[in-house]
Amino acid sequence: MIDISEIYFDKTIVLIPQGNIDLRFDTILKRCNIPDMGLCNAVNDIFEINYIIKEGKKMSVKEIFQPNVEFSKSARIKSMAEYQALQDEAINDYEGFWSRFAKEKLDWIEPFTNTMDESNFPFVKWFDGGKLNVSSQCIDRHLDSKANKTAILFEGDRGDTLKITYAELSKNVNKFANLLKNELNVKKGDRVVIYMPMIPEAAYAMLACARIGAIHSIVFGGFSAEALKDRIQDAEAKVVITADGAYRKDKPYMLKPVVDTALSGKTPVEKVLVVKRNNEEIAWLDGRDISYNDIIDNQSDECEAEIMDSEDPLFLLYTSGSTGKPKGVQHNSAGYILWAQMTMEWVFDVKEDDVYWCTADVGWITGHTYIVYGPLAMGATTVMFEGVPTYPDAGRPWKMVQDHKITQFYTAPTAIRVLHKMGEDEPSKYDISTLKVLGTVGEPIDPPAWKWYYESVGQSKCAIVDTYWQTETGGHIVSPLPGATPIKPACATFPLPGIMAEILDPKTGKKVGAGESGYMCITKPWPAMIRGVWGDEDRFVKSYFGDVKKDGKAVYFTGDGAKYDEDGYITITGRTDDVINVSGHRMGTAEVEAAIKKYNNVAEVAVVGKPHEIKGEGIFAYVVLKEEAEAESEMKAINGMIKQEIGSIALCDDIILAPGLPKTRSGKIMRRILRSIAKGEKITQDISTLEDPSIVASIESMVNG
Ligand code: PRX
Predict the structure, then answer these.
(1) pLDDT at 27
(2) Which of 3, 110, 146, 225 is the least crowded, having the fewest Cβ atoms under 10 Å away?
(3) Any idea what DSSP says for residue 101?
(4) Atom of ligand 1 at shortest distance to CA of 366?
(5) How far does the centroid of ligand 1 lie from the alpha carbon of residue 616, in Å?
(6) Measured between alpha carbons, how far is 648 from 633 in angstroms, rounded to an integer?
(7) How far apart are CA 605 and CA 628, in angstroms?
(8) How many Cα atoms occupy the beta-carbon half-sphere of 272 within 13 Å?
(9) Separation of 442 CA from ligand 1 center, angstroms?
(10) How far apart are CA 504 and CA 391, in angstroms?
């Protein structure tokens, strides 16, 4: 027990001496005469609690968690001084910094001659003149020293496991590459759509494309046939790689039928390669469909890697923007793989004997960079999991940590909230002592989820790296470093070395001060940055370089708002555009609206985000029908249309059949009002200028009673 006299309290800060604190927060607060805030037990090494009292009740708490001393000793970046030295190196000689790491980290077939060429900004070239192959970076260069090390550790939904060594990975990828080349006539620069479950063949497919210089475009298996079709057509894909299906919660689910529907009608696709996973019956189109399992063993396990330029495209990945049409984000070879490897090493600090698990799906950027490319580029063991984390129960991830001695665990706040809710005590039932670093990604994490993650999963000894980034950035841009950064919960902390991320005032282009909100920008091009929006140069420039100028020059704007605290820590406050973040997945409101509008009885629609206990944000739709109809069946039909057009991930949590939408006299829908109503907030702004102000009151009463 600590002596109460050691607790100092003034108007804004409670100072508690560092050490093992045995008091409950509420006890401390009571003694300091602060109203109860119902937090859980105090944790070790809290030395400062800042709190704000709102109307004597609500308060937010910020605590600082110092890096684990033992961990820091052998971390790649051991202290904030080391972090700062790296960042200073980049500030003082930007190209020198990147040139040094590109030479140190990558194996070049031919060295690059120019580090960065921004003469055609925002179309930037990195490591020009250099030649390499990304699949060789991920496989071949490890074969001398790590042939028998596990590269991919696969666990199936039903508990089946498979360890694929680097030597085996090499053979499997080479065979796959030969199959693509020789049987499907895939050539350098061709686009290949991958619509696959989480099985090792998905990784082989990616690496095989990289090996022969084909550009892969993975479509998440949860997307519908329509969504798949749009992406196939936009990319003009020649081949689709899929599977019959896979397993989820011990039951088979299907993918091939979705591909069949997507390919009905005119398509650029010549061949469909089908991998067997669940052996369920599937339709077969002779001449188009090719069975992977029947021909893979006829292929040679040697395949010369295509010599690629640094700036040859590696992949496209479609992501939502603020218009109805998803953008094909393009990443190129050298810059992307360099940053994937560097961030793996710095942010997760994976060591030779570690087993690293990222729970994402390969259909999202996290799966690209942090299941496949990053871990394999650094020669790590990466876990791939087919199932869902709550099946057969919410102890599944912790059992996997125990079984495979997992050392780094990386997941999304949504998953943490579900695991917390469904299995608060589950982590204690397993030996999870191997864990060293925990990560989160995709959305802001709320303090209660953070605390449970830290205390129950991290056993109050693991750093939590709250990694902030996006599809377009290729890899992390703002994140704690586990051995160096004093962490504040739910805070992405500082830009990584080499990344010139700044929060700018969109009007002045100046850096905002502590406590002020601004736009999260990156003021210098970086190697892993998006290279273009497939087939739409104009959209690339307008989407990312149109909003903020610093010193008169356009800078990359992420679309996110952010703020600094008094110590310069960065907190991401969320999107500033019409993009909603549902369970860490980006969903354009315009995309959902376009889907809803396809239902023939819909006259008008507006979609907004609403805070959701598990998903972070849920989708809230206001729909005006053309003709009155039975509400329940209309809502079902609307969600049915979304499922058909996008997939279940975009289903609405709330649908309000509204008499009209609040619009200005010029016809612009006032989304701000709709967002407030969805959140249950009182409308205080002036609505007298609306075309029909009475609509606000009637929608308000429909939503909030
Ligand atoms: O709004 C930010 C949020 O997710 C968006 C990027 O989504 P996507 O391209 O699908 O990539 C997700 C995985 C990187 C960002 O614009 N976001 C991502 N990470 C965080 C986050 N918001 C808060 N904190 C994070 N750590």
Answers:
(1) 53
(2) 3
(3) H
(4) 13
(5) 12
(6) 18
(7) 15
(8) 28
(9) 4
(10) 44
Q: CATH code for 583-704?
A: 3.30.300.30
Supply 161's token pair.
Answer: 């496991």
| Residue where the block lists tokens 């060789």 | 136
Cis before 326 (ω within 30): no
Query: Whose CA is closest to 686, among 704, 668, 670?
Result: 670
Determine which residue's CA is closest to atom 7 belonging to ligand 1: 470
Distance, CA of 657 to CA of 665 (rounded, Å): 22
User: Of 189, 512, 80, 529, which is closest to residue 336 (Cα–Cα)?
Assistant: 529
Q: Which helix (H) or strand (E) holds 271?
A: strand 271-275
User: From the CA atom positions of the chain, what is the Rg in Å?
Assistant: 26
Most ligand 1 atoms within 8 A of CB, residue of 220, 469, 569 to mutate: 469
CA of 258 to the centre of ligand 1 (A): 28
Expressed in angstroms and rounded, the spacing between residue 471 Cα and the centre of ligand 1 is 8
* 584 backbone φψ class: left, alpha, beta (φ>0; ψ -120 to 50): left
CA of 470 to the centre of ligand 1 (A): 5
Q: Is 587 in the pocket of ligand 1 (CB under 6 A)?
A: no
* Cα–ligand 1 centroid distance for 225 (angstroms): 25
Q: Is residue 230 within 6 Å of ligand 1 at its C-beta? A: no
pLDDT, position 35: 45
Q: How far apart are the first and last CA of the chain?
A: 49
Report d(CA 468, CA 491) in Å as an integer. 9
617 and 581 Cβ atoms separated by less than 8 Å: yes
Summarize pLDDT for 458-496 with one digit per residue, the tens.
999 999 999 999 999 999 999 999 999 999 998 999 999
Closest to 243 in 3D by CA, of 151, 360, 363, 161: 363
pLDDT of residue 689: 85
CA distance 261 to 133: 35
What is the atom index within ligand 1 of the atom nearest the CA of 492? 26
423 lines ligand 1 (CB under 6 A): no
Residue 30: what pLDDT?
Answer: 53
**Rounded CA gap, 17 and 6, in Å?**
7
Which two three-digit tokens encode residue 197?
Answer: 């479950």
Instruction: Please identify every stretch of the chain with a pLDDT value under 50, giving residue numbers as ranges.
Output: 1-24, 33-61
Task: Sketch the domain layout of the chain as residue ranges.
Answer: 4-60, 583-704
CA dist 131 and 137 (Å) reads 12
Cα(671) to ligand 1 centroid in Å equals: 22
**C-alpha span between 74 and 242 (Å, rounded):** 42
